[in-house]
Amino acid sequence: MKRHDHHLGLVFPPEQTAANPEVMVDFVDSELWQQLQQRLSGGERFWEPGTSVHLNAQNHLLDSRQLQELGEALDRYDLKLTRIATSRRQTAVAAATAGFSIDQGSELPQLLTLSEDKTTGGKTLTAEPLYLQTTVRSGAEVRHPGSVIIMGDLNPGSSVVADGDILIWGRLRGVAHAGAAGNKGSIILALKLEPTQLRIADSLARVPQTAQGPTRPEVAYVTAKGDIRITEAAGFTRPYR
After folding, report:
1. Whole-number mean pLDDT of the chain?
2. How would DSSP label each residue in 144-206?
3. Which domain holds residue 101?
4. Quick check: helix, strand or coil at residue 123?
5. 87 lies in the same domain as 113
6. In terms of domains, do 59 and 176 share one?
7. Contacting residues for 51 by C-beta, under 8 A, at least 6 apart
8. What's the number of domains the chain is made of?
9. Would you put residue 36 in left (φ > 0), alpha (ψ -120 to 50) or beta?
10. pLDDT exceeds 60 at position 112
11. Does the predicted model carry a pTM greater than 0.85?
């Protein structure tokens, strides 16, 4: 556990690869859980009440129940679990479903594939898409080194940052940043676009709030001039692909 300017960092040691890496170990009954409790209970508290905790779970496979139990345990020590960094797709999905901010690490080579950015003619490494069947709550953030597909809403006060595309099968009312690694060919698509802010690569757009907007799916993309344009998704063709 390490103190930073505005939060505490909690880092789990890497889990040794088991014979079946998809088998989930009950975290509450694990030795790691006991060590964490001893660390929190021993000595003087060096944090302020309500301090946020950012957990780096590395390659540990955790479900929503285990993450919620960890959050409840930290609550007893006046700590608030807010963000989960993980290299495991299942853990990222569980964390987002439980309402935590997530940062899906890209350090695992098997998650990465080559994709071409035709605005530059170069190829970059991107992760496989991250699928979430949940609404992203206010205050939560989703970060992923590939495309993000959300079957739900992106609420005001929440954000999604993706190196690839962002597809929201619902209402997009928060902040969306596609092509965060610089790919101007990325797009942002939603059934209902009511964003606080849209970004694609280094292009920025603030969408004016209107009383009555279109009811059809819309897509945001970067034009040849570098501006973000919003159009109906039906019949849309990527300008750079």
Report:
1. 84
2. ESEEEEESS-B-TT-EEEESS-EEEEEEE-SEEEESTTS-TT--EEEEEE--SEEEETTEEE-
3. 1-105
4. strand
5. no
6. no
7. 7, 8, 78, 79, 80
8. 2
9. alpha
10. no
11. no
